[in-house]
Amino acid sequence: MGGMQVLRAVRAGGVAVVLGSLLAGCSSASPAAAPATSPATAGAPGAGSPAPTPTSPTAGPAGPLACVAELPLGVRIGQTMLVTTTDLARVQPWLDDGLIAGLLASGVMSQSTAQAFDRATSGTRYGALLAADEEGGQVQRYRGLLGSMPSPQAQARSMTPEQVTAMWAEHAAALRDWGVDLVLAPVADVGHGPGVGSRSFSDDPEVVGRYATATAQGIRTAGLLPVLKHFPGHGRTTGDSHDEARVIGPELDELRAIDFQPFTEVLDAVGTDQVGVMVGHTQVPGTAEEAASQSPAVIEGMLREELGFDGLVVSDALGMAAAGQPTQGDALVGFLRAGGDLGIVGPGGSQEGRRAVRAALADGTLSQQRLDEAAATVLAAKGLDPCDLAAQGGDAAGADASPTPAEDGPPGSDPLVVNPTKEP
Hints:
There is one protein chain. 38% of the residues lie in helices and 12% in strands. It is of the alpha/beta class. It has an 8-stranded parallel sheet with strand order 11-10-9-8-5-4-3-12. A two-stranded antiparallel ribbon has the order 1-2. It is globular and about 55 Å long.
């Protein structure tokens, strides 16, 4: 990623503003970035990429949202989806055409697989993010290439925050050399409940806040974007949102007193423009009947207004049972309507998403402005200026991106994304 400014639209009046400072990142997401030497071409991990030069998106006379509106509709919809898969041949045409925003590395990565993911997300016209679920312990996709790290729980028990920052700075730099842009860590959940376990640092919010901050700072040192998870808090819930249809968290007053604390600490220490936030599928009693990922009260009300977060909002995997929607496409529409930006789906889920978002735009369930806000935020996370993209021309305003044969078939079923919760 060449550089990043998180771009948010001010809801009142729809005036676009650019928030935060430039973030240095890696080159895989930006087609305009200078070619870098990476393991994909050098054949060995640790071959460093030259430090990218941050560039500031230009608002242009009409503003970034107006420029986003000039992009093909298929591209704008595509920027809202991060696909988790190992079937790169299936999704490569979608990456090339901007019909998805990027990939989430799945499974345990071998050298050949990691090289393939790096290549797949490099040099596309609309950029392509590469994200990694990389927490330590059981949830560590690049373990076979970079070595094992202790689980967050073990880190808090055996290491100082300073040691954690140093460990993560080295680890994130190695991830960057494999083309990674976003690290889906740290876990900022308080407690070791179902679905979380050793992925949480502690059941003490102060400990979680210190170590989550240390992790985020280490990731940022390497120029990657850390994504805090799982807002509004999954550590003290009634069940595991991977496979249970309804997962209830603490009451709102208790969330504010305990579970929000680590998120607030990281945002205050690192900066709201220096991190992303992942929203989970838990429910807040008395506040929202739907999952947090589908709830404007949680995303717009609690996260954006109450905590003041104005950056990239990512969903937990939208195929999980607790998302509460019949299809991943329906869950994506609900997430966007609630104020989210980048939904995690499977390949079939991205096909559902393209169809469901088009239908929601057609019947007014989802507004064009909300879609464009989300797309603009994701493009900013890639370090791309929508006005530059629009100026390149090609497709007519609002037209579809080039159709791909794979879009014509039925979506098919996607395997459930499950993160283990116990130590290796």
